[in-house]
Amino acid sequence: MPDQSSQTDPLQGKIALITGASGGIGYATALALGRRGCSIAVHYNAAKAKADALVAELSQIGVKAIAFQAEMGNFDQVRKLHADVVEQLGHPDILFNNAGRTNTVVGMWGDMGSISIDEFEHTWRVNTASSYLLTQLCLPNMVQNKFGRIVFCSSVAAGVGGVIGPHYASSKSALHGLLHWIAIRHAKDGVTCNAVAPALIIETSMFENPSEQLKDKIPVGRFGLPHEIASVVEMLVSNAYMTNKIIVSDGGMTPSAF
């Protein structure tokens, strides 16, 4: 049996593109992968100050990091994001499709009619189509190098409907079909594809004012934290045997994967 202590970290020297890196989960994941020796492409849309702060924090620990701005609902900007990352850092070995929007929140008992088809489409463009496009752009080099790690940030809403609305839940569940196809198609190419499906994670822009009533739904009795989701992503990108999986991180709300 080989001596594990003598082996280098499989993430050392890899390039990770993290969308929505200025938010709680993206920020924590960037730090986690940076500490593992990855260079980090820090994507943001409007939160430039947070993105710059993350780059500075990563730089302080010796990590090469650059911030890149793009509106993920604009496909031309998504294409430019990829081109800029390749030009300034290199082709991504790791892609964490983390950027997303909730848009209008109608709740569990809301009116589907209050979500217009235009808002539905915009939600899907940001949450689903941009991830599809960015993955499509990153895959060829991953396949060529026989190494790639793709992770989608889904949501418990994809499996149970959730508390935001049908536009958001459906945009996240669509990622599951996408990852299953990619994982099976490219497993022999050294490319893994998985998702993390969080629920009720505080210290994020999507979940800023949680109610105690929501906390009562969580068996562990508290809300989740960004670094706890980041640790799941870290496991998925460091484990070459993990693919075609959706890891639900919800404090025990759901009894199994979906």
Automatic annotation (TrEMBL):
Q: Which domain of life is it from?
A: Eukaryota
Q: Name one GO biological process term.
A: monocarboxylic acid metabolic process
Q: Does the keyword Zinc-finger apply?
A: no
SUPFAM superfamilies named in the record? NAD(P)-binding Rossmann-fold domains
Tell me the keywords, alphabetical order: NADP, Oxidoreductase
**What's the catalysed reaction?**
a (3R)-hydroxyacyl-[ACP] + NADP(+) = a 3-oxoacyl-[ACP] + NADPH + H(+)
What is its EC class? oxidoreductase
Q: Does the keyword Flavoprotein apply?
A: no
Report the EC number(s), separated by commas if there are several. 1.1.1.100
Molecular function, one GO term: 3-oxoacyl-[acyl-carrier-protein] reductase (NADPH) activity
User: Matching PANTHER family, A to Z?
Assistant: 3-OXOACYL-(ACYL-CARRIER-PROTEIN) REDUCTASE, 3-OXOACYL-[ACYL-CARRIER-PROTEIN] REDUCTASE FABG
What family is reported? Belongs to the short-chain dehydrogenases/reductases (SDR) family.
Q: What is this protein called?
A: 3-oxoacyl-[acyl-carrier-protein] reductase
What organism, scientifically named, is this protein from?
Psilocybe cubensis
